[in-house]
Inverse folding.
């Protein structure tokens, strides 16, 4: 190891031997995995999106390079606009607004609640989060199908309404909220615990009511946590596939066809590999832009 | 000190990496025995073709036994692909991308076969079929069902054709004939209106629409209407272009619009069910419970009403054949040939990358022998390709009276095109009929515009045309 300090001999070993080879070797498997399963596929997708590759048909063996034609096609695609709208509703309403609000409320409530209540309710909420997405989908399917629990709860006037057909986006947003709120609740719970007691006491001594303390002391201090929550929630929900596909397959028609479902339909139902990957690149771009905005917000705080 | 630490780290890394590699390791590919003699593989749909999941391994197991007995020393690897027809085609497309996973023989639905052939994956079979005696027993329209530009890419192993089922008790109640022979589309619409008027609580007309069922939505649904229109052309073989706008399409959408806007169709929650549920519900719930007055349906459907002993997974609904009559769907104005029926099915194809083409052809011939072909026809609800098999008592007496009726419709049945862009044409059609169901006030002209726009976008403006 080299050391530079006045009075000591500076190491004469060449630069390449100063690298921590041991550390690199141990990191190698992880780097290889990242390369193989992340970096290479992203570049592969970028390349594919510039071709007219198909899964089936004349261009399934040999692709032609067609430049930005897929992206031009996206500008005229009448179903892509619908997909973007559905994605915005899904991510905006259920994740960004719904999950954040409900997460904060639950965190604030459980801060004040009795230990046994906090533990039991908390476990139920977390359980909903950790079960596989297919299980979540089956639960919500039987809840909202005609003759299901929701119909029974709403009484005989609404019996035999298949809510997955009458109000599909609403059911999906609620299902997503139901299962993902655990993450926000845990994040905000940790954030709340990190607020020092002295600050809250000082505000109370100054005569601030609970709401004033909440709005002017607690939430501003928790701002980094809130932005972190936004980042995680946005990126996680932007690429959500299983829950929506298992519940409605994007239907009825295109009513719940968010971007991931549209990509799946293009690439695997209609075998348009080139076009599907172009939309996937769009999805990556949206995620990247969202992340940049949030990171700016985060940095502005610090 | 540092050097020994470095060596320790290096040794540890090597051990960890090597054990990871050994654990992940090379996996056995599609199992092939190491015995002498050739091994060929056949890929097929193990859950969608036969009426019951139990029937597929029985038939395929018997094929394997017959093949290995007839050609001692050779082996047949069975690659059953679960899921729907769309799942099987997706899996085949993935397997075809690499020569090492390509099967020698494949069972492919006739709809996407042309598109797969366009990728160069299938071997033309013209020289094989010319010396095959059974080929002459197959009617010409079925022979060329999976041909593109004269090159035959698949040998048909069974077809579905479709017609109109009508509920006799409801017809009697509504004052309609119980031995019904509609001559025009207007007859069909008027019958639907009569049912709506006289029998409230029953949905008059069941027709598959929308994209939940994929490409077969056209084959087993609106295709039977379109093919009877005054301009039934879907693919213009003179110009090699797909029809994206025509008077026939407009009339078809008018027919559908009348049904949708007058409330003659069922609820969208029925029609938009996923494919895993739809046919089960249609045949075990809706038709036995007489939820609908009429339905466009296909030859394989009544087999679900047979007793379980028939091996079709039947629900033993004895009254089925008395309640539901079947007749060919009429043409628009009764013009010749008077009946429209869409034809589609499955075919056996040979991979162009196969290294054992002669053996693959032997397998195809074996599967087409009478005993095997009729077993498939009865177990999967097909009309067999060979006329001799179609007229044999073993087939006719299996499903009375429907097998005879649908066999008689075979001469009038029109094959849907098998070109590379057919799946895209059906996508546009499915999206349009789905939109019309969701929005019953959508006019036929709007529907035609939507269809034209989408078909042009998907297929390419240089490959579509408007026909008068």
């Amino acid at each position: 190891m080299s050391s530079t300090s006045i009075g000591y001999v500076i190491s004469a070993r060449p630069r390449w031997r100063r690298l921590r080879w041991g550390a690199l070797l141990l990191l190698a498997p992880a780097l290889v995995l990242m390369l193989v399963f992340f970096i290479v596929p992203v570049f592969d997708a970028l390349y594919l999106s510039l071709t007219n590759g198909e899964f089936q048909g004349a261009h399934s063996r040999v692709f032609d390079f067609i430049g930005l034609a897929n992206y031009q096609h996206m500008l005229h695609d009448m179903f892509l606009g619908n997909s973007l709208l559905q994605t915005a509703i899904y991510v905006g309403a259920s994740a960004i607004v719904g999950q954040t609000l409900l997460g904060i409320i639950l965190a604030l409530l459980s801060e004040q609640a009795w230990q046994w209540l906090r533990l039991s309710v908390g476990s139920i909420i977390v359980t909903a989060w950790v079960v596989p997405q297919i299980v979540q989908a089956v639960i919500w399917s039987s809840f909202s199908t005609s003759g299901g629990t929701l119909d029974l709860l709403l009484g005989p006037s609404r019996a035999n309404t298949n809510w997955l057909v009458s109000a599909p986006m609403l059911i999906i947003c609620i299902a997503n909220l139901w299962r993902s709120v655990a993450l926000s609740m845990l994040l905000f719970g940790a954030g709340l615990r990190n607020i020092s007691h002295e600050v809250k006491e000082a505000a109370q001594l100054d005569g601030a009511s609970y709401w004033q303390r909440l709005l002017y002391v607690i939430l501003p201090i928790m701002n980094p946590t809130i932005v972190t929550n936004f980042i995680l929630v946005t990126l996680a929900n932007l690429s959500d596939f299983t829950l929506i596909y298992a519940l409605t397959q994007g239907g009825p028609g295109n009513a719940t066809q968010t971007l991931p479902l549209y990509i799946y339909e293009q690439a695997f139902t209609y075998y348009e590999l080139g076009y599907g990957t172009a939309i996937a690149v769009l999805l990556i771009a949206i995620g990247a832009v969202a992340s940049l905005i949030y990171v700016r917000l985060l940095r502005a705080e610090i | 000190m540092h050097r020994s630490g470095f060596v320790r780290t290096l040794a540890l890394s090597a051990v960890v990496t090597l054990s990871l590699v050994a654990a992940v390791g090379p996996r056995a590919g599609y199992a092939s025995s190491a015995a002498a003699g050739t091994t060929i593989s056949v890929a097929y749909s193990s859950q969608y073709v036969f009426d019951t999941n139990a029937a597929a391994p029985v038939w395929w197991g018997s094929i394997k036994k017959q093949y290995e007995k007839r050609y001692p020393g050779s082996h047949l690897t069975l690659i059953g692909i679960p899921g729907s027809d769309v799942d099987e085609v997706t899996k085949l497309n993935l397997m075809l991308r690499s020569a090492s996973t390509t099967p020698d023989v494949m069972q492919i639905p006739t709809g996407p076969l042309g598109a797969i052939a366009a990728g160069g994956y299938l071997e033309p079979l013209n020289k094989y079929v010319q010396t095959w005696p059974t080929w002459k027993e197959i009617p010409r329209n079925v022979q060329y069902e999976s041909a593109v530009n004269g090159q035959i890419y698949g040998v048909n192993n069974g077809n579905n054709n479709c017609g109109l089922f009508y509920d006799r008790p409801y017809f009697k109640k509504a004052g309609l004939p119980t031995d019904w022979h509609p001559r025009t589309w207007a007859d069909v619409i008027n019958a639907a209106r009569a049912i709506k008027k006289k029998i409230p609580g029953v949905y008059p007309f069941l027709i598959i629409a929308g994209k939940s069922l994929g490409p077969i939505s056209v084959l087993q649904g609106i295709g039977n209407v379109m093919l009877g229109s005054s301009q039934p052309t879907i693919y213009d073989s003179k110009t090699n272009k797909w029809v994206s706008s025509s008077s026939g399409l407009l009339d078809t959408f008018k027919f559908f619009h009348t049904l949708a806007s007058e409330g003659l169709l069922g609820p969208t929650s029925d029609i938009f069910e996923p494919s895993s549920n739809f046919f089960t519900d249609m045949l075990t719930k809706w038709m036995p419970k007489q939820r609908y007055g009429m339905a466009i349906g296909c030859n394989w459907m009544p087999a679900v009403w047979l007793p379980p002993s028939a091996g079709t997974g039947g629900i033993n609904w004895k009254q089925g054949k008395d309640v539901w009559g079947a007749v060919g769907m009429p043409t628009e104005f009764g013009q010749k040939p008077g009946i429209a029926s869409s034809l589609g099915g499955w075919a056996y194809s040979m991979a162009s990358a196969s290294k054992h083409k002669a053996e693959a052809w032997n397998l195809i011939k074996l599967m087409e022998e009478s005993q095997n072909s009729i077993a498939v026809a009865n177990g999967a609800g097909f009309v067999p390709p060979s006329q001799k098999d179609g007229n044999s008592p073993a087939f006719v007496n299996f499903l009375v009276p429907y097998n005879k009726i649908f066999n008689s419709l075979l001469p009038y049945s029109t094959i849907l095109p098998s070109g590379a862009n057919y799946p895209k044409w059906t996508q546009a059609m499915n999206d349009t009929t789905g939109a019309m169901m969701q929005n019953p006030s959508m006019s036929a002209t709007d529907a035609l515009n939507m269809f034209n726009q989408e078909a042009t976008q998907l297929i390419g403006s240089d490959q579509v045309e408007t026909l008068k």
Observations:
- The interface with chain B takes residues 1, 21-23, 25-26, 28-29, 54-61, 73, 76-78, 146, 162, 165, 249, 251-253, 268-271 of chain A (CB under 8 Å).
- Chain A is about 75% helix and 0% strand.
